[in-house]
Amino acid sequence: MTDRYQKLARSAVGRTLVKRLGLPNPARLRRHQPGQPVVDGPVLFGSAPKGRLGEAVLDLLKAVEATVLTSAAEADPEHRYGALVFDATGIERSEDLHELYRFFHPVIRQLGGNGRVIVLGTPPELLDSPRQSVAQRALEGFTRAVGKEVQRGGTAQLVYVAPGAEANLAATLRFFLSARSAYVSGQVVRIGTAPVVEPADWDRPLAGKVALVTGAARGIGEAIAEVLARDGAHVVCLDIPAAGEDLSKVANRVGGTTVQLDITSAEAPAILAAHLSERHGGVDVVVHNAGITRDKTLGRMDDARWDSAIDVNLSAQERINEVLLRDNVIHDGGRLIGLSSISGVAGNFGQTNYSTSKAGVIGVVQALAPALRERGITVNAVAPGFIETRLTSAIPLFTREAGRRMNSLAQGGLPIDVAETIAWFASPGAGGVTGNVVRVCGQSLLGA
């Protein structure tokens, strides 16, 4: 789907109009291409006194062959930074928050196009001191505000790292520093303690893994299948029988296999469990992408619209999870990933059924993540915002334009943006990342 405004804003005449009228100015986002460096430009790293993550961060930056500076004085003042990374774990009281200002104030305007800001902290709920907890919680407001101030496709994230989880940073920092996170900004992620085995090849971290993707025949599901296959997984592509032709095309293209199945049928969980066990010896990654919309305002919505949205988007996922987990079809150390939505965070007019179901997906994450920790199974969700798909192309013009512009990046995302985020959750290196809901929305103005 063509974003005509974005094309206009990039033209010579459009650039002048955008500047003079103060209109949204969507930057060209840098998205991942094979062979490109993880981070584009030098990385400035700083730390508050008593910060505990410096060694882990510097080791990671060395591993990705980044040019690392630890003082702004080392840099050419005319040069642009690819990323600004700050270890705020040493901030123990509100007065210490001045360390954020001290580090970022002199350099924030030198962040390059598509630059990255990453703040690292300690989960407030793990701290015994109320003052430490307050100071660490304050990092969220800072990071989200910075995400709205950086320009030209820049993003900002806050990563809370539990004490003892310092060695679990690699997968998350690689994702947020890279072009894979192009449409993710203003997010807060928690990394916990867990056994993590880093992949032998970061370009193919899912080699030897089996991944199930529901709703894989088109749109976001198709993109997920492509990215997981690119990362080395054998992808089992699932969709309803009516989508069989498109499903086969996707599976053939990614070197995967197909399952034609209505996931809402009573027999679906058992059929799927048997198929995965008998054909593939189980499954390592399960992505619950299948979903529908049946929009009407609540007073005009009939039973069928309500029930079908809840059943496809939430109840079918729960029933499948129960069987796959009960029968150990999902391997220990596996990944469960759900598709929520910013509608499940903030609600949406005419979508009480959809918003309810997508908030329920967040509930699945919160309920299962602690319960499955002992098995090493992580449970996370992605909450997309406005993503350019066949469905959003049918939205009325002015509503569609509002959806595109009402975020810090002033544009819609692409299915690949959702898929890259899911691939990060699916990585063996993300074993400490569980219980998270990450919005892929360009830091939408809706929701938190």
Secondary-structure map:
Blueprint lengths: L3 H6 L2 H10 L21 E5 L6 H10 L4 E2 L11 E7 L10 H7 L6 E11 L8 H20 L5 E7 L8 H8 L9 E5 L18 E5 L4 H12 L3 E6 L4 H11 L2 E4 L7 H13 L2 E6 L14 H24 L3 E10 L2 H5 L5 H20 L6 E7 L12 H9 L9 H12 L10 E4 L8
Parallel strand pairs: 1-2, 1-3, 3-4, 4-5, 5-6, 7-8, 7-10, 8-9, 10-11, 11-12, 12-13
Describe the structure.
- The chain is an alpha/beta fold.
- The chain folds into 2 domains: 25-191, 3-Layer(aba) Sandwich (Rossmann fold), CATH 3.40.50; 210-440, NAD(P)-binding Rossmann-like Domain (Rossmann fold).
- Helices cover 37% and strands 18% of the residues.
- The chain has 14 helices and 13 strands.
- The protein has helices at residues 4-9, 12-21, 54-63, 98-104, 130-149, 170-177, 219-230, 244-254, 268-280, 303-326, 342-346, 352-371, 397-405, 415-426; strands spanning 43-47, 68-69, 81-87, 111-121, 155-161, 187-191, 210-214, 234-239, 257-260, 283-288, 330-339, 378-384, 437-440.
- Strands 9-8-7-10-11-12-13 form a 7-stranded parallel sheet, sandwiched between helices. A 6-stranded parallel sheet has the order 2-1-3-4-5-6, with helices on both faces.
- Helix 7 links the parallel strand 7 (210-214) and strand 8.
- Helix 10 runs parallel beside helix 12.
- The longest helix is centred in the last third of the chain and has 24 residues, at 303-326.
- The chain is globular and about 65 Å long.
- The mean pLDDT is 94.
